[in-house]
Amino acid sequence: MENNTDTIIGINVTLKGNLHNKGSIQVNGNIEGEVRSDENVLIGETAKIKGPVIAKKIEISGEVKGLVDASEKLEINSSGRIYGDINAKSLVIKEGAIFVGKSTSSSTPEKQGELKKAPTEKDEVPKTEPIENKDKLGFFSKK
Amino acid sequence: MYYYIFDLKKCRKHSQVADIKNYLASLGISGEFTYPSAATNIEELVDLGLSKKYNTIVGVGGDEIADRIASKIVGHPEAMGLIPLEASSDLTHLIGTANWKDAAENLRYRRIIETRIGLTANGSGFLTNLNLNLKNPTEVTLEFRDYLVQARAISVLVSNFSQGVKKIAPDHLDIVMKNAAPKPAGLLATFSNLFSSKNENLGYSMFRARSLRIFTNSQVNLLSGGYVVAKTPQLVESSDEDLRLIVGKKT
C-alpha cells in the first residue's frame, strides 16, 4: 500500500457515492459517483469509474465513463480508457489508450477570450494613415 | 493523586500485585488500589476515583481495562495511565513500553499526550483498533457520510492507533480492509500464481473518516486486543474530545 495515499479502493470493491478527499486517491475497484481530490488521483488497470473525476493530477490506466478534469496534468496510459470529455492543463495520451470525447485545455479559453475581447475606449486603437497618402497610383484622387 | 485499578485476571501470580504495589511505593507514586468485582465494575471504579478527586486514573492490565477506563475519562481533565500486563503490541507501542516497571516510571515523569479514542454506539471505547472477527470471506458494507463501500472481505480493521497504519488526521479513524480475490478459472488459474502477489496488494482498501457504520450479512464480533467490544451492525466514530494519556519519553 502507498503510505502517501489518503484513500485506496481495492480490487473487487464497489463504492457508491461521492468520494471527496483533500489527499490523494488510488482506485483499483469500481466507483459509481464523483471522485474529487485536492491532490492526485491514480486509476489502476482494474478500476472502473462511472462518474466525473476531478483532481490536480490524474493518471488513468483503467476505465472512466464521465468527465475527467485535471487542473494540472492528465496522463492516460496505454491501458487507459476514457468515455467522456476531458479538460486538462497538460495532457499525455500514450499509444493504445482509448479516448472517446471532447478535449479542452484549461489554458485555451483564456487565450480565446483575449482574441474575442472587444476593444474598449481605454484600449489604444492603432492609427491608420489617411487614404490620400496611400493613393500613390492616383485612383482616388480627383481628376 | 494516583488511583489504580487492577485487572487481576492479567496478573500471572498473586504476588505480582504485591510486587507492583511495592515498586510504585518505591517510586513515590503509591495511591489507592482498587479491584473490579461482581459488585463494582471498572466503570464504577473510575467514577469513584473521579469523585474522590484523584487526578490520575491508572489501569493495571491489558487492552480491556485500558479501553474501559479510556472511554470513561475521555474529555475529562484527569490523566490516564497504564501499567501493561499482557497488553497488545499496539497498546504497548502507544504508551511506549511493554514493561510494567518502565510504565510505572513513566507515570512518575507524567509525560502526557492528548489523543482521541474510538467509540462504538453501545458506549464502548478503544484506544488502538477494532477488528472484525471474520472466519470466512464475508460480505461487508461500510457506510460513510458520503458513500457506501461493499466488498467480500477477509479482514477489516478500524484503527484509532495501529503501528502499521500511518495516521494522517488525529480526529479520523483509519479503516483498512482486505478483500477476497475471486478464484481464477480456466487458463487464468494456471497462471494465477504469477499474478497472485500483485493482486494481493490490489486487494487492500483504505479509508479515513470521522465515523462509519459497519454492516455484515451475519452478526460478527468486533474485537479490540482479543476481547469483544461490540457486534455488527455497529456505528463506530472518533471521539469529539481528547484523552490525556501518560506515555513514555520516546513516544
UniProtKB/TrEMBL annotation, chain A:
Please indicate which superkingdom the organism of origin belongs to. Answer: Bacteria
Q: Where is the composition biased (Basic and acidic residues)?
A: 111-137
Residues covered by region (Disordered): 103-143
The record's InterPro entries line, in alphabetical order, gives: BacA/B
The record ties this protein, via Pfam families, to: Bactofilin
What family does the Swiss-Prot or TrEMBL record give for this protein?
Answer: Belongs to the bactofilin family.
| The protein's name | Cell shape determination protein CcmA
- Native organism is Candidatus Berkelbacteria bacterium CG10_big_fil_rev_8_21_14_0_10_43_13
Automatic annotation (TrEMBL), chain B:
Q: Which Gene3D superfamilies match?
A: Probable inorganic polyphosphate/atp-NAD kinase, domain 1
Tell me which species this is from.
Candidatus Berkelbacteria bacterium CG10_big_fil_rev_8_21_14_0_10_43_13
Name used for this protein in its record? DAGKc domain-containing protein
